[in-house]
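Reopening this ticket.

The earlier resolution said the output was attached, but the attachment link was broken on my side. Pasting everything inline this time so it's all in one place.
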Amino acid sequence: MGAINAKPLLDKPWREINWKDKQSALQHVKNYKPQVEDRQLRILLHGPSGAGKSSFINSVKSVLEGKMCRVALVANVAQACLDKKYTTYKIEKENPNSFYPFALNNTRGLMEGEGVPVDDIKLALKGRVKEDYKFNPKCKLSEGDQYYNTTVNPNDEVHVLVCVISADTANHMRHEVIRKIHEIRKAASELGIPQVAVITKVDKACPEIKEDLKNVYKSAYLKEQMEQFSADVGIPMNCIFPVKNYSEEIDLNDDVDSLVLNTLKHIIDFGEEFMNHKMNHPEGSYFV
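Inline output:
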């Protein structure tokens, strides 16, 4: 059920973003190269079904490739979740067979009963889950299974954990889903993996944002939603980023691109810092 915003816009945005300089953020991402040679930064997405994980992947790919992309299957509200396999998405650069040095992994949605087993996400964090593993809500992956990765390459390990939540349902999540998010966060923290949240569908949570996406950081209502979500799951506000995924559009939009790029830039920066820290302090903790 969508939220109804009855609060006026703030006079000044509570977080600054340069809407006129999309190219700077785009160039930052395009220029990114891990300091560790031959290393790939891995970003793992998780969250409730229908939150927009697949749409976020498609939006990132669309922005970076400069065209609308539909590589990750997106289910409508009448369908069951389609993200049932552990899938890695790489993004092409300008040259054929050339890819950005980061990848995004999708997972089955967190639900009650039929959701992804939390233990499977814990294994994915450690690089133990092989490509195309089909998540089974009734049976977790175990050692000896053909999709259990016994030999872990550093590129298989996760460097950033991203919780994807819909703005119009962020404060209506069931206790079981919140419990799972806490459990996954604890496992990531024990591994030192940095964690962020992406709040999607901001235009559905606030009519002023739907009218003008630049109001996203002027919306008192959205800020309160984000603050409550932060309190519920423990992710700090400066690690939570609102976006609008491409869903109904058939052409790219600069404002949508700016939010997606700003979010992706911070995710990459978090992951790169963790990757470098882990190389220098393999037994130390980085992020809690």
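Reporter confirms the inline version is readable. Helices lie at 22-31, 53-65, 118-125, 175-190, 202-205, 207-211, 220-233, 254-280. The radius of gyration is 18 Å.
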